[in-house]
């Protein structure tokens, strides 16, 4: 029974780790750059959510979509435009790519430390956290939502990258940008 309890406890953390891994995979498959700053971008988004919903009292229903669908993609786009695109265009060696993404990581961590300090913060919960009991083990409802989102993201990523023209073009650009451009693929 202990194993079931441990599995239930690890479900949320494992789902979040899977989502993070999917984000790294998506970044790598679309830019060819292994983004060490991926976690720092997620951290900035988490702090922005805490700042808007926790500190300024915005409703969670407003703050979450604004931060997750607005600020998160905007940070990713800025990182792509300012750092990753140039690395991709000139086929930078892996060492240069890793150092550049490490620089973005350090920059973002520094901005958060200067802006909000280094103490732990607790943001309002996005989802209700009902406990679902199976035998003696309990699973939180938000952990099941995390798992569902991770599985749906995996399925969507697989479908887009393998079954759509857009996905094939993105993979072609990553594999050989010049050849893809000769085939009339918009590499940007």
Short key terms for the protein model shown above:
188 residues; 7 helices; globular
Describe the model.
The structure is a single chain. This protein is mainly α and 188 residues long. It has 7 helices and 2 strands, in the order ααααββααα. It has a two-stranded antiparallel sheet. Helix 1 runs parallel beside helix 5 (141-163), helix 3 (60-89) packs antiparallel against helix 4 and helix 5 crosses helix 6 (165-175). The mean pLDDT is 85.
Outline of this structure?
The protein has 188 residues and is mainly α. Helices cover 75% and strands 4% of the residues. It starts with a helix and ends in a 6-residue tail after the last helix.
